[in-house]
Amino acid sequence: AFANPVVTNPKSCGRPNLPAGAKPIPCCPPKIDSDNVTDFVFPPKLPPRVRKPAHLLTADEAAKYKEAIRLMRALPDDDPRSFTQQANIHCAYCHDSYVLNGSTAPPQVKVHFNWLFAPFHRWYLYFYERILGSLIKDPTFALPFWNWDHPDGMYIPDIFADRRSSLYDAKRNANHLPPVLIDLNWNRRLGDTSGDSGINLNKVYTNIAAVKAPDTFFGKNFDQGGGQFNASGTLELLHNTGHSWTGDPTDPNNEDMGSFYSSGRDPLFYSHHSNVDRLWTIWKDKFGGVDFIEDDYLNSSFLFYDHDGKLIKVNVKDSLDPSLLGYKYDDVPIPWADAKP
Ligand code: C2O
């Protein structure tokens, strides 16, 4: 049993375990020099980068975001900061590419179905956001969030739907383009149902506001959850719908958003996760939620390339306070706070 997955050796990344029908891709990061892994240090204290609702961006803010993604797409595929490599991070960490520390078992690090879900994705966004900021030379750049927990944000934000934009992705469900309201209870197998904003708010209330215990909210520990069986928390379960509802059901694995290996290819992924990350902060700040304190949790670690192309080792402990990472969320209304079903 390995309760504390420590990914310290990038060379331990192997072939991903992709779903049937997926075009084989190597998901592991490029240009690996495992002697050159630097421990994460907190960024200098600056005014926080403020993540805003994607549907409320000014024309200027939207233009910056599009330009940043355009530049990221223009990087060569073997640049660890490139659009392709950034998407592959999700593939590698989600399809068993990494070996657990000290394990001789087949690769099996998974960042879903267990308590690593929230901190892994926070780190992923942290580096992604800073890469985008450095590409447009704007250190204040912040990843907008898809505000699907507010009636005005319960559809794919327009900036992602414009076909000429770098934020567009063709592999989405053609029946779910704006202004179709998301159904946060959507189940792909049951076919199309129409979203209802009141019922959606009930769902967010149930999965966030009404939850007290960390293992209910974040999921079970890695040992119990490790992917052997589903031990997801309510935060992850709520977030799954955004993936399956957005992906294209005519693709073999509901690509792009509907499958781990491909979801990072849709720019909407990162704004979806920006909202998931925001719900974690709200749960703590407004609903009395508390983080795990187990060492196995706090010492779990991951590897990411930063905006300078340096390989950085981060741990869960350093992810728990967004203010130390230099960002915060715009304080917009929370219409689900009392939306008890
Ligand atoms: Cu790693 Cu939204 O999934």
How would you characterize this protein structure?
This protein has 341 residues and is mainly alpha-helical. It has a single domain (10-329), classed as di-copper center containing domain from catechol oxidase, CATH 1.10.1280. Helix content is 35%, strand content 6%. It has helices spanning 59-74, 83-94, 117-135, 158-161, 197-209, 214-218, 222-225, 234-246, 260-263, 268-287, 295-298, 322-325, and strands at 37-39, 49-51, 301-305, 311-315, 327-329. Strands 1-4-3 form a 3-stranded mixed sheet, covered by helices on one side. A two-stranded parallel sheet has the order 2-5. β3 and β4 (311-315) form a beta hairpin. The chain is globular and about 55 Å long. 48% of the residues are buried. The mean pLDDT is 90. CU-O-CU linkage binds next to α2 and α8. Residues 90, 94, 112, 121, 239, 243, 273 line the site of CU-O-CU linkage (C2O).
